[in-house]
Design a protein that fits this description.
Chains A, B: GO terms for molecular function: hydrolase activity, acting on ester bonds. The structure is a homodimer. The two termini of chain A are about 25 Å apart. Chain A has a single domain, classed as Alpha-Beta Complex (Cyclic Phosphodiesterase, Chain: A), CATH 3.90.1140. Chain A is built from four helices and eight strands, in the order βαβαββαβαβββ. Chain A has about 170 residues and is α+β, with helices and mostly antiparallel strands. The longest helix of chain A has 14 residues. In chain A, the strands form two sheets. Chain A has a four-stranded antiparallel sheet with strand order 2-1-7-8. Chain A has a four-stranded antiparallel sheet with strand order 5-4-3-6. At the A-B interface, helix 1, strand 7 and strand 8 of A face helix 1, strand 7 and strand 8 of B.
Chain lengths: ~170, ~170
């Protein structure tokens, strides 16, 4: 089974992200707007209980942190993905690190962690220039407290279903 | 905010349901296949913590139960919704009842509870007859254990995001 770990921001931020994703993100229908904490990974289903124990332990030792969005950025020239930049506060960066340690959680991390909420991807070059050109000058001003992350699994159609929520500082 | 409570069945059942939903259910992209335990309800955001306490209490007193699917059925002539019929085992029916009691959870229930996973809705009359005609003779044979339900909230685009998972028999 393919699993992934993400934070779903507040409804307000999700609604804002969706106003762009609707037009510019082909993954719009597969998952609500999110911050990926760990890239999708394969795991045998009989390991799921061990995985959940590790995630509970990690959540227990994580404190709620502030999620702040001030601007839009892009992964160009690597890809033309446009995203709401999430400020890399220490507790969020530490959470990402913890999710790449342990016995069951795969430890490889292909890219360095740049916390973000994707709002556009797989655009043509011209479309990318238009959209990013108009968004990069805009100011955004979102702030919320994050106190949980979610373990999801992927269906055959590419969509994601939440398996379990892990709340910070709890058993 | 609009909230809803549902069970997401196993990946296997979700994949099966999606093979129909993809063509026959306009809600396909808004939420993965699910058993609705409680119809969407409005709640002020400052009541969410009380709601979660009630749901934890209900989950704690619910035992895991068997979810069994043997056939397809339909709400015709009320609506032409087609669904995978979920056997109404006592623990599931009791869970639905409990979700309509308490102080925060709205108690009204418009329809009597018929546990189901929708696979087709809002079809034209002819389409409905075709699809239901070919599915109603088919045997289905799915069985799994359910040990959790999910509290979701609805975004402006109609899609649902999971807020929290409640596992049976746990604090």
């Amino acid at each position: 089974m393919k699993y992934g770990i993400a934070i779903f921001p507040s409804k307000k931020i999700q609604d804002e992200a969706n106003s762009f994703r609707k037009r510019y993100d082909p993954h719009y229908a597969l998952i609500p707007p999110h911050v990926t904490l760990k890239e999708p990974f394969e795991l045998e289903e009989d390991q799921i209980n061990d995985l959940i124990q590790e995630l509970k332990e990690i959540a227990k030792h994580t404190s709620p942190f502030k999620l702040e969005i001030k601007k839009v950025s892009s992964f160009s020239p690597v890809t033309n993905t446009i995203y709401l930049k999430v400020e890399p506060v220490p507790e969020l960066m530490k959470l990402n690190e913890r999710l790449h340690s342990g016995n069951v959680l795969p430890q490889e991390q292909t890219y360095s962690f740049v916390p973000h909420i994707t709002i556009a991807q797989k655009l043509s070059h011209d479309e990318y220039s238009d959209v990013f050109g108009s968004l990069k000058m805009q100011e955004f001003n979102f702030e919320q407290t994050v106190d949980r992350f979610q373990l999801m699994y992927q269906l055959e159609n590419g969509a994601w279903t939440v398996h379990e929520t892990f709340t910070f500082g709890q058993e």
